[in-house]
Amino acid sequence: xxxxxxxxxxxxxxxxxxxxxxxxxxxxxxxxxxxxxxxxxxxxxxxxxxxxxxxxxxxxxxxxxxxxxxxxxxxxxxxxxxxxxxxxxxxxxxxxxxxxxxxxxxxxxxxxxxxxxxxxxxxxxxxxxxxxxxxxxxxxxxxxxxxxxxxxxxxxxxxxxxxxxxxxxxxxxxxxxxxxxxxxxxxxxxxxxxxxxxxxxxxxxxxxxxxxxxxxxxxxxxxxxxxxxxxxxxxxxxxxxxxxxxxxxxxxxxxxxxxxxxxxxx
DNA sequence: AACGGAACCTGAAAGC
DNA sequence: TGCTTTCAGGTTCCGT
Length: 266
Hints:
Blueprint: H1 4-18, E1 23-27, E2 34-35, H2 40-46, E3 51-57, E4 60-65, E5 68-73, E6 78-83, E7 93-99, E8 102-108, E9 114-118, H3 125-128, H4 141-149, H5 155-159, H6 170-179, H7 193-214, E10 249-253, E11 256-260
Parallel strand pairs: 2-9
Antiparallel strand pairs: 1-7, 3-4, 4-5, 5-9, 6-8, 7-8, 10-11
Helix pairs in contact: 1-7, 4-7, 6-7
The protein binds a DNA duplex through residues 1-3, 6, 32, 59, 73-78, 92, 109-114, 126, 151-153, 157, 162, 169-174, 221-225, 231, 234-235, 254-257.
């Protein structure tokens, strides 16, 4: 269940595994994640392609190939992993690219991810619609404040808007609000300039700390059985707030869980 | 335009 | 034990 940090780690891994290499074998079964529908366009794009660059914006990956462009979104359960060429396909394997010594596999149990074949220079609509990315562009509080001022919904729900905070998801939103000491139910429009500044710094800090924790060849998402929870408050309802010790609350906003400290988040 | 809610999927854990 | 419910870090679409 990847957000910006997990997708960034994936981009770094794909760069190491594939950049400068030629894809010499491709396996893509027909699933709903493939666009355009049917594996033909994707196989045609990838077979024999040289991987020139791997980029990330928000939760999207973009592989620039000698033949065109591959976009990848990991949805809730997608991950790219490296195997040996002789290793058998594994459970939920939805794509396989062999290049040099590497056999890179895309695994995705719930099929919420996307693999999109594109040609030409124009980015796909989903990529074009993304707002500023905290790592690629940096977030600008001065630019953000007037946008937030027009939004009546809660700041927590607003943080999930990819047109405003590309790459922020439910965990980073939860963590950033705790770091910034902001109550998740506050209307986005109610944040002062000072608070928007604190929020932006908190988003950057949380993303960077998560990146440090998760850097490595294979990420274990926190919802997987037995995976550690590296976060301060996410999924820690009932535990003491790391700052003031009062029990962390769990509420639901827009159908998504938020964990926060009712005492120190104002 | 903006918002809330359902839909799209699978699998693990918790509840009965 | 086994069946049912709940929940999960994603986006999109539809109705109001």
